[in-house]
Design brief:
The complex is a heteropentamer of chains A (254), B (372), C (355), D (242) and E (327).
Chain B lengths: L3 E8 L6 H18 L5 E2 L2 E9 L4 H13 L5 E3 L4 H14 L2 E4 L16 E3 L4 H12 L4 E8 L2 H13 L4 E8 L7 H11 L5 E7 L19 E5 L17 E4 L9 H14 L5 H19 L6 H8 L3 E4 L2 E5 L6 E2 L2 E7 L8 E8 L13
Parallel strand pairs in B: 1-3, 1-4, 4-5, 5-6, 7-8, 7-9, 9-10
Antiparallel strand pairs in B: 2-3, 11-15, 12-13, 13-14, 15-16
Helix pairs in contact in B: 1-7, 1-8, 2-3, 4-5
Chain C lengths: L1 H5 L8 H15 L1 H4 L3 H26 L7 H19 L3 H25 L5 H21 L1 H4 L5 E2 L24 H24 L2 H11 L1 H6 L4 H27 L1 E2 L1 H4 L2 H14 L4 H28 L4 H6 L5 H15 L3 H11 L1
Antiparallel strand pairs in C: 1-2
Chain E lengths: L12 H13 L2 H31 L7 H18 L1 H5 L3 H31 L6 H23 L4 E2 L9 E4 L2 E4 H23 L2 H10 L1 H6 L4 H27 L1 E2 L3 H16 L4 H21 L4 H15 L11
Antiparallel strand pairs in E: 1-4, 2-3
Classes of the chains: A alpha/beta (254), B alpha/beta (372), C mainly alpha (355), D alpha/beta (242), E mainly alpha (327).
The complex binds adenosine-5'-triphosphate (ATP) (2 copies) and magnesium ion (2 copies).
Chain lengths: 254, 372, 355, 242, 327
């Protein structure tokens, strides 16, 4: 169970996330929606530790995460994919994933702190990385350097890194943004598959309402940093605040 | 074995002291030419000079000297420009059991505690510099403060200077980093120390390198009656003396001062070749050449090291500065220094030092610092 | 297979590169016999020292992406460690070990502090701070002259066994006299081979891969679970320790040390250039680069002397080709090598082989 | 012909390093219309736009803008002809404030006060965040806000041609609506627009003409109306029906 | 909405430092001498560092060869002044200034012209690549220094101050050297012009934007290449001017003089926040004051004073006093 309590952050006078308390149970997929600049990414940053909260706490399965570094939170079971692609640009696709696999799995490589073994000897890492690349349909490009990938493929790799961490909590920040409608299903299928595993908690920031409607078990709405709605998808989408502030005087809400 | 005598000259052809090194080389070659009467041979053996560039780097100097003795089969070596390089070279001479004539590196320890019997020096050492200056300013009723670089060169110099002062009173020693560019703070401290002293007040400056400590006169030292004294220097550096007419000190060499045939020959040869007078280090290089040739002539061209050593110990030889003598104890060449007073002459770009008095070796009590 | 493991499975991946490396290895291994003379041996020894120094710097720069100008500081610490303890404790092996131990300890503490500091400020600031720290350290070494010999440095003696005066065989072997200097050279040679192989292992370990990730994107490396502080600091400390060892090698060879010899900014720049010529992020680049650079630097003046004589008919060309202007050509070498080897020699050779 | 098409590419080949990316692109952007460039990920859309802007150079083929051939021209010259470009990565100057970002895009203005006021008001109305964060470092904006800033920069001064790489990416639905309105308004004022877009809705509502790329070539070109009507064509070109 | 306010706290640094030093120095006239000397020294440092704030701070080119333009300026000035012996030798101030100004202009022109070549052949291939910049500009520096030796010789060259600029003005017991007053005036002009150009025109913005994303600036229609050349030339010319001021201050020139001030000016612009003219001025004044006070109080520590100052400032503001860019 991931829980945030009164989570708040201020940038100067601007309150980007305002006292958000919310709990996310394993086995559910919660969609987080809200206008641009509502504080969704910032909320993620607070949970995963990229930003330090001005007030409030984050805990996972009863253990407080506040004060831990991002890497420690990753070890505690949080996994995160970024909204703006953020990879290791001059390494190959395979190495990107392999690094993520190595980071969280124990083994002779001691999570990267082993100074005295030969890296390629750790075959299990490569095998696992290959498997993940196959899942996101990137296997054919595994030896390309990331910088030369088209945007859509970079987004896929972003998700692959998250999968490689095998966390308890998956946080997706607009995973299909900029992805072709023919390619997006690869990612969405992955998420669907994850949903079946009842021990995983999934958080999804997404602006495409059809995706949200289909996948989400629950929707929370952030607006100006405040949590303004929380509940069943149909109910939340129908609520006036969402209709107005988020979807606009909707011509396409259908 | 053959009928060649190979002499290595290792000096800063490049690096921070390039200008000094070049002077030495010019002087050395002119000296050999003069001493052999233009034949460049001694007893039928041809003198061959092997030039090597230590770039001012001690480690390089060390390996160059080894290479000179071993790969190039040099019978003896002359150099280097920088004291640090010289100190690193000393053990090499001992290792190869070959003579090194140090010129113009000045550190006392070269003929002091780091000395070995293969080392001779034609150049002056810090003590000679300092003591001659002390002789020049040492008068009753004079109060002296010093301004020096905060390194071995500066501190040794001031120590020797202070020890040699008999009548004057030394009230303050100011040491500044060798890289100092702004001398205001140091000058202010000196002023504070001196301004209330009675009688003649002198700041003695010993400085080598880029900074220009003479700028402190801009702080209007005259209002407190403070004067400046310093040793000689190369001609470009003496441009700063133009602002200090009447300044006194003691110099190692200035081409217009010594009156002897060797100096006359060197000055005219130098004018002929370069249209400029010879400088400080030219005289040094010339002296080293004179020492080499004098010694080799005495051995009839024999380059056996032990024979050379016994010949050179106590040997006197003529130089542009008059007669020099290698002292038996530490192989330092004893030589005259020149008490001068600066005159401004528009014909020269520098302040001209006029001879007040030639300080003969006998007038200076240069301590022997090595252990034999 | 054995070779593959010795090289930590990081094969040259280019036939030409493999040949070059082999040639370098053989040349260095038999240098005293192939290239007679004191000067040639000094050059070979300097190469050995620089290979280790540059490889250690590459761990920091090429693999971790930290630009530090304080690397020669650790080099100097190693050299001073030997110099000071040998001149105080006398020419015995105990003194060498004490000096080595003490300098490693000092380097460890200092590099630890610097490594931690590197996280507080941005890259350029860090580079400039290390530049300032290194120059302060050099000043300090000159100022503590009672201890370090000041600007003049320290000349000292080492155990008989590796001193030139020791001769362990009467007869020269293949025209080379078998003396302490030869032993000293081979001591350096073995040390260099072991240290370079060790570095090769480190950069090809799981740890080495994480360093590359940090170089590429520190933020993301932290996000996927690597504590960047730990890795960076470890890399900084390791590279400092290897540099310290290189410094000790230098002091042992020269039996002299001073601020200009091991602490000067010039050496730092030479090291940087070698890394770039050789190819950043490839330990092999350090070896190839060091050989090329040190040989060029050592023989440039001789080469120019020949050029100068050849050009004596053209006074202006002769003036430029004067051996006194060797630095000018070194500068040109700097510029050209950055122009023509953007990925270094190793990078270029590998790219060619990959086609 | 040349009066009808504001921009045209004929047989453009582009290499990036050793890779051959575009294999003869033919593309026509009719004056005053909005042209959609569609295609799968990696089809070469971004590369095509960059080639037009002179950020990559065509190794073969020709690019014309109006009467002028711009194939070998440099980016500033091309932009100077009246083309505004929003790159895929948005190209936000994150050290500068939002105001400074806008000021740079307004080539005619020496300082913020000289930026055309009515236009600025219009932008503020479309994208309130730009006004709200006017004096903030642009690097601190949210993903969607950056996208808004990127588009705002392209329209702060009138330009003849807008080239925009995936403008709707990361925008909330209400903002997508605003942007559609904005493009419609621009089009009415005579601006020609070339859009790369993945959002089908967006494409259908705005596009006049359409070009579909695959594997570094334009494999279909025609009117949007026809294209949206032909589900089979869509299926075969894009792998799905709109 | 939080407005960006002018941050005035760094402005207090220099006055605070001076106040702290007052009781320590003991006598008021000593303090005054040191303070005025320190401020003027700071101005000279500012002049030599001003070019680097443009090149290093704004353009993000780690130009380790900047010093060579300083040396070049000084040597050119020595040649120009050497030709005007009548004017420099005269005791009248206006005649001296008439000699010094052309020397400055010629030095700036020569340094700027060499800067043009330097940018074209040395810097242009390596924009955005710090390591290579360091190396290639070091190479350029070595070449430049050697060429100076080829032209002017390896020896040091005296550059005496013109007559009327020598000596001091006495204010009570404190002595204020005349040359330093000239330096303050020149420094103020340089500061004014730079601050105005960068603050009131788009040039500063364009450079910063161009460093971050050159392609985008070009896509907006600006010829960033030409702008960079221009700024580099101006930076080099300012270094040339700095060289004249520094040379006259030292009164003798060595070819290595540029390299000798490199670390000092790096420190100044880092304290200033890389690219901020005001920051560099504050940094320079602080360094000037600090070296004078420490030089008076604890001379052995003078060489560490400016480094200590830099570390202290960075601990307070890790990006310098007026950070310009987020580097
Ligand atoms: N480091 C920061 N400093 C100052 N303000 C910030 C910072 N990070 C975010 N903000 C502000 O906080 C607000 C919330 O940003 P956030 O990125 O969380 O939005 P979001 O909901 O993810 O929006 P989008 O859908 O556009 O991605 C924005 O107004 C943004 O400008
Ligand atoms: N810098 C580069 N180096 C090598 N290959 C590249 C580079 N940039 C792009 N490519 C390749 O060019 C092809 C086309 O890429 P491009 O970015 O134009 O696709 P796209 O149609 O814009 O895709 P997306 O919709 O995902 O953005 C891809 O196969 C990509 O891998
Ligand atoms: Mg977001
Ligand atoms: Mg694209």
């Amino acid at each position: 169970m991931l829980e945030t309590r009164d989570l708040t952050i201020r940038f100067g006078g601007h309150v980007a996330v305002n006292s958000v308390s919310c709990a996310f149970a394993p086995g559910t997929l919660t969609a987080i929606v809200g206008p641009n600049g509502a504080g969704k990414t910032t909320y993620f940053n607070l949970i995963s530790g990229q930003l330090k909260a001005s007030a409030g706490t984050v805990s996972l399965d009863g253990h407080s995460l506040s004060g831990l570094s991002p890497s420690a939170r990753t070890h505690a079971g949080l996994g995160r994919a970024f909204q703006l692609t953020n990879l290791f640009p001059n390494l190959t696709v395979l190495e990107n994933v392999r690094l993520a696999v190595q980071a969280t799995r124990d083994g002779a490589h001691r999570r990267g702190l082993n100074l005295w073994s030969i890296w390629s000897d750790h075959k299990a890492l490569t095998e696992r990385a290959d498997q993940i690349l196959a899942e996101v349909a990137l296997k054919s490009r595994e030896h390309a350097t990331v910088a030369s990938l088209p945007h859509g493929d970079q987004r896929k790799l972003e998700v692959a890194l998250l999968m490689a961490l095998e966390p308890k909590v998956f946080m997706f920040d607009e995973p299909t943004a900029g992805m072709n409608a023919a390619e997006a299903p690869v990612i969405l299928d992955l998420i669907r598959k994850l949903k079946k595993d009842k021990t995983k908690t999934i958080l999804l920031v997404e602006h495409k309402m059809d995706v949200v409607r289909e996948l989400a078990d629950r929707i929370i709405v952030l607006h100006n940093g405040t949590l303004v709605a929380d509940g069943e998808p149909a109910e939340v989408i129908a609520s006036p605040v969402v209709q107005e502030a988020y979807l606009g005087v909707s011509k396409e809400a259908a | 074995q053959s009928n060649e005598i190979r002499i290595a000259h290792i000096y800063s052809k490049t690096g921070a002291l390039e200008a000094y090194g070049k002077q030495t080389q010019t002087g050395f070659m002119m000296g050999l030419d003069y001493a052999t009467g233009g034949t460049m041979t001694i007893n039928g053996k041809k003198l061959v000079v092997i030039e090597k560039d230590d770039q001012g780097k001690p480690d390089l100097g060390k390996s160059l000297l080894a290479a000179a003795y071993s790969d190039d089969k040099a019978a003896l070596a002359v150099g280097p420009t920088a004291s640090g390089v010289a100190l690193a070279m000393l053990p090499v001479a001992e290792e190869y059991k070959k003579i090194l004539i140090v010129e113009p590196a000045v550190a006392d320890s070269i003929t002091g505690d780091k000395w070995n019997k293969y080392i001779f020096r034609t150049g002056r050492n810090s003590s000679q510099d300092a003591i001659s200056n002390a002789v020049a300013v040492d008068k009753p009723g004079v109060t002296v403060a010093t301004l020096a670089q905060d390194n071995a060169f500066g501190r040794d110099g001031v120590k020797a200077f202070g020890a040699a002062l008999k009548k004057a009173k030394l009230v303050h020693e100011e040491y500044l980093p060798p890289t100092t560019t702004d001398f205001t703070a140091g000058a202010q401290r000196l002023i504070d120390k001196l301004k209330d002293q009675p009688g003649r007040k002198i700041i003695w400056i010993v400085w080598a390198g880029a900074g220009n400590p003479f700028k402190i006169v801009d702080l209007d030292l005259k209002r407190y009656g403070i004067e400046i004294a310093t040793g000689g220097n190369i001609l470009p550096a003496m441009a700063a003396y133009k602002a200090l007419p009447g300044m006194e000190g003691a110099a190692y060499y200035y081409f217009g001062i010594p009156k002897n045939p060797v100096n006359e020959a060197m000055v005219s040869a130098h004018y002929k070749e370069f249209k400029t007078p010879p400088d400080f280090f030219t005289a040094g290089g010339f002296s080293a050449a004179m020492a080499v040739v004098t010694a080799l002539k005495k051995t009839n061209g024999d380059t056996n090291t032990n024979k050379l050593i016994s010949t050179m110990e106590g040997m006197s030889f003529d130089t542009p500065k008059g007669k020099m003598t290698f002292r038996k104890e530490d192989h330092q060449a004893m030589q005259s220094m020149y008490h001068f007073k600066i005159k401004v002459d528009p014909a020269f770009a520098w302040g001209v030092p006029e001879l007040v008095h030639e300080i003969k070796p006998e007038e200076m009590d240069i301590p022997i610092k090595n252990k034999r | 297979m054995f070779l593959k493991r010795l090289l930590s499975n990081d094969m040259p991946r280019s036939r030409l590169l493999a040949l070059l490396l082999l040639a370098v290895f053989i040349a260095l291994a038999f240098a005293p016999f192939i290239f007679p003379g004191v000067k040639a041996l000094s050059v070979a020894a300097k190469i050995l020292v620089f290979v280790v120094l540059v490889a250690s710097f590459d761990l920091l720069l090429g693999y971790t992406g930290i630009v530090s100008f304080a690397h020669t500081m650790f080099f100097g610490i190693g050299a001073y460690g030997i110099a000071i303890s040998a001149s105080r404790l006398g020419p015995n092996w105990g003194a060498v070990l004490v000096g080595l131990g003490a300098s490693l300890a000092i380097s460890l503490v200092l590099s630890f502090a610097i490594g931690l500091f590197s996280l507080r400020v941005r890259a350029i600031f860090f580079a400039m701070i290390t530049l300032a720290v290194a120059s302060a350290f050099q000043t300090l070494a000159s100022q503590l002259s009672d201890f370090t010999g000041g600007e003049d440095g320290l000349t000292f003696k080492l155990p008989e066994l590796i001193s030139p005066s020791f001769e362990f065989a009467e007869e020269p072997f293949l025209g080379v006299s078998l003396d302490g200097r030869l032993l000293c050279y081979y001591l350096l040679f073995v040390a260099a081979v072991v240290l370079v192989l060790a570095l090769l292992r480190i950069v090809n370990s799981p740890f080495g891969r994480v360093l590359q990730a940090i170089r590429e994107n520190e933020f993301r490396a932290e996000a996927i679970g690597y504590r960047v502080v730990v890795y960076r600091t470890t890399a900084a400390v390791l590279s400092a320790l290897f540099a310290t060892l290189a410094g000790a090698m230098l002091a042992i060879w020269l039996r002299y040390n001073g601020p200009d010899t091991s602490l000067s900014f010039e050496i730092m720049i030479d090291v940087l250039l070698i890394v770039v010529i050789g190819g950043m992020g490839t330990i092999y680049g350090a070896a190839i680069g060091a050989v090329l650079f040190v040989v060029a630097q050592s023989y440039l003046q001789d080469l120019l002397r020949i050029g100068n004589e050849a050009a004596s008919g053209l006074p202006w060309l002769a003036a430029l080709l004067s051996p006194d202007r060797w630095l000018l050509w070194l500068g040109v070498l700097f510029v050209l090598s950055v122009y023509y080897f953007p990925t270094g020699i190793v990078g270029k050779l590998r790219a060619r082989a990959a086609r | 012909m040349s009066t009808k098409n504001l921009l045209s590419l004929e047989g453009v080949h582009t290499h990036i390093g050793a890779y051959h990316i575009l294999h003869g692109v033919d593309l026509a952007v009719p004056r005053g219309q909005l042209t959609m460039l569609l295609g799968r990920n990696g089809a070469g859309k971004t590369t095509t736009l960059r080639t037009i802007m002179g950020l990559w150079h065509a190794s073969q083929g020709r690019v014309r803008f109006g009467e002028k051939e711009i194939t070998a021209q440099h980016t500033p010259q091309i932009a100077g002809l009246g083309i505004a470009y929003v790159p895929e990565n948005m190209g936000i100057f994150s050290d500068l404030t939002v105001k400074e970002n806008m000021l740079l895009a307004a080539r005619g203005a020496k300082n913020a006060a000289q930026i055309d006021d009515t236009r600025l008001k219009w932008i503020f109305k479309l994208f309130p965040a730009v006004e709200k964060f006017w004096n903030h470092p642009a690097g601190k904006l949210s993903g969607g806000q950056k996208q808004m800033l990127a588009v705002s920069r392209a329209i702060v001064e009138p330009r003849e041609l807008l080239i925009i790489d995936e403008p709707s990416k990361g925008l909330a639905p209400v903002m997508i609506n605003n942007m559609i309105d904005a493009f419609a308004e621009l089009k009415r004022s005579g601006v020609t627009i070339l859009l790369v877009e993945q959002n089908i809705n967006f494409a259908q509502r705005l596009g006049d003409t359409v070009a579909v790329m695959d594997n570094g070539r334009v494999v279909h070109a025609g009117s949007m109306a026809e294209f949206s009507a032909d589900a089979q064509l869509q299926q075969s070109l894009l792998g799905l029906a709109l | 909405m939080k407005k960006l306010e002018f941050d005035w706290r760094p402005l207090l640094l220099a006055p605070v430092l001076a106040l702290v030093a007052l009781p320590l120095t003991g006598s008021f006239s000593t303090w005054l001498t040191l303070t005025v000397a320190g401020l003027a020294m700071g101005m000279i440092i500012f002049i030599i560092a001003s070019g680097l704030t443009l090149v290093f701070g704004l353009m993000d080119v780690l130009n380790f060869g900047h010093g060579v333009f300083i040396a070049l300026g000084a040597f050119v000035a020595s040649s120009v002044l050497g030709l005007m012996g009548d004017w420099t030798g005269s005791g009248e101030l206006w005649r001296n200034l008439v000699a010094v100004f052309p020397a400055m202009l010629v030095a700036m022109a020569v340094a700027g012209a060499v800067g043009l070549a330097f940018e074209r052949f040395i810097v242009r291939p390596v924009y955005g690549q710090h390591l290579k910049q360091i190396l290639i500009t070091m190479g350029g520096m070595i070449i430049g220094e050697e060429l100076i030796k080829v032209i002017w010789g390896p020896a040091q060259i005296p550059l005496p101050l013109p007559e009327a600029l020598r000596g001091s003005l006495l204010v009570g017991d404190a002595a204020i050297s005349k040359y330093r007053l000239l330096a303050v005036a020149v420094g103020a002009v340089v500061f004014g012009v730079l601050a105005w150009t960068l603050g009131r025109t788009k040039i500063g913005l364009l450079i910063r934007a161009g460093v971050q994303d050159r392609e985008m600036v070009e896509s907006l229609g600006y010829r960033i290449g030409r702008l960079f050349v221009g700024v580099f030339v101006v930076g080099s010319a300012l270094a040339g001017l700095g060289g004249v001021m520094w040379g006259l201050f030292q009164q003798n020139l060595v070819p290595q003089m540029g390299a000798q001030v490199n670390v000092l000016i790096f420190i100044v612009i880092i304290i200033g926040g890389l690219g901020s003219t005001g920051g560099a001025l504050i940094g320079a004044l602080l360094v000037g004051l600090m070296t004078n006070y420490v030089g008076f109080l604890l001379p052995t520590l003078t060489q560490f004073a400016s480094i200590f100052l830099m570390v202290a400032v960075l601990l307070w503001r890790p990006q310098g006093v007026y950070p310009v860019a987020n580097r």
